Each structure stands twice: as C-alpha cells, then as structure tokens.
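Hey team,

Filing this mostly as a record. A colleague (T.K.) asked me to run one chain through the structure pipeline before their review meeting, and I want the input and output archived in the tracker in case anyone asks later how it was produced. No errors, nothing strange. Just documentation.

Input sequence:
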Amino acid sequence: MGPNLERRKMMNEYVIIECAISVGVLAYVWFVPVNRLRRDSFRADIRRLRDDLFDFMWENSCDFSTPAYVETRQTLNGFLRLSNSLSILRFFLMVLLGASLDRHRNHSPDSLAKVEIPSLKKKIEEIRTEAVTRMLKFLFTEGATGLFLRLLAHLAILKHWVRQKSQEMWLSAYELGSPSLSTQQRSLLH
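Output structure:
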C-alpha cells in the first residue's frame, strides 16, 4: 500500500502543478494579448467616431472652428490618449475627483447649445453619446470586470427564471392538491 500511496501523492502534485501552469498561461493570454486587442478595438471605434464627425463637417461645409466640434474632437483625442491607462479604478477616481478639479480648471462650458445648425447639433450629440457608451462598454462589459458583471447578470436572470418556475410548480401543486379534482383529471396533469 505504501508505493501506491506515494504514486497517488505524486500524481496529485503533478495535477496541481499542471493546473497552476494552465491558469498562469490563461492569465497571461487574457491580460496581455487579449487586453491589447480590447484596447485596439476601443481606439479603432473612437477613431471611427472622430473620422465620422470630420467627414460630416467636410461634407456639409461646416466651420471646423465651431467650438462644439473642437470640444468634441479634443475629447475624442483625450479618450485615445487615456486608453492605455483607462481602468475602472481610474474611471471612478476621475468621477470622484472631477468635481474638485473643475473648480481649478479653465475650461469652456459646453458649447453644444450654441450650435445653430440642427443637423450638426444632432451629429455631435450622437458622436458624444456613442463615444461615452463605447468607453463605458470598454470599462464595464469587456475584460475581467466584464466577465464578472456578465456572470452576475446571468445569475440574476437565472434567479428570476427559478422564481418563475417555482411559482408555476406551486400553482400546479395547488391544483393537484385540490379536493375537487377528479382522479381522471389528476392523471392528465401528470
């Protein structure tokens, strides 16, 4: 029994080492190449939005010095510059510290209200909304956090489904327990 026990112990150690190496490789793949692809995809989407806005301005002979256009383009460029260091923690720090920083900054108020061309105003609003939506998607639904949040969402959906099915089972059990139910009706319910 001694050699057999030692063989099992060695096998268990081998399996543990194999699992640890596999987890390490998966973590490397997830946090290095996949993370780069996520960021490249985010940057490509922001560049597409910036190019769409530029094309709209050019096709409609709009003034490129329009303050709302300049602000939007500058913000999109800021998203591109921040993309390497953008994380959920930094996002929350920016949100929390943003109010105190606003008091010390010299920035112009949102000039979108001053845009007189309705189609330009609508396009800039669309671009801004899409850019912020894409950034939030990048932060909260992609990457490790996204997997965790999706898992939570699926668990919530599963919980709702289980509740719904348990209610249906409760009603079926109630009907089966009815004293007015005939034997023939009970056999049909099974």
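Quick notes for T.K.: The radius of gyration is 29 Å. The chain is about 80% helix and 0% strand.
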